[in-house]
Amino acid sequence: MKIIVTSLFVQDQDKALKFYTETLGFVKKHDVPTGEFRWITLVSPEDQEGTELLLEPNNHPAAKEYQEKLIAEGIPATMFGVADVHKEHERLKKHGVKFTMEPTKMGELTLAVFDDTCGNLIQIAQQ
């Protein structure tokens, strides 16, 4: 068994698609209409056959509450691996990305956390 898709609740699928592709650099794999919303998945440009990130609409009350509580507590919704947190931090800041935690060494990891503008905090980690 392996993870093929993981979901991330977003407030606005179009805004999220733009941010995750244009700012973060993910590649759109699927964009399929599913009634009112779309099945939008992204993949890493380095592993286009790897795990897909589903930009899931947060229209369900439980999804909205989950997102709001994570933000209120400062808890990242997910973590992405990067080769160099400091370099990625600087690149993203140049694109206007707001960080809630600057790069910080924690044991074997260096972490940073940013706001994705779509209702989530995202953690980036360098091992």
From TrEMBL:
Coiled coil, from the record: none
Signal sequence interval, chain numbering: none
SUPFAM superfamilies (alphabetical): Glyoxalase/Bleomycin resistance protein/Dihydroxybiphenyl dioxygenase (SSF54593)
InterPro entries: Glyas_Bleomycin-R_OHBP_Dase, Glyas_Fos-R_dOase_dom, VOC_core
PROSITE patterns according to UniProt: VOC (PS51819)
CDD domains cross-referenced by the UniProt entry: VOC_like (cd07263)
Domain of life, source organism: Bacteria
Domain VOC: start-end pairs: 1-127
Pfam families named among the record's database cross-references: Glyoxalase
Protein's recorded name: Glyoxalase
Protein species of origin: Oceanobacillus zhaokaii
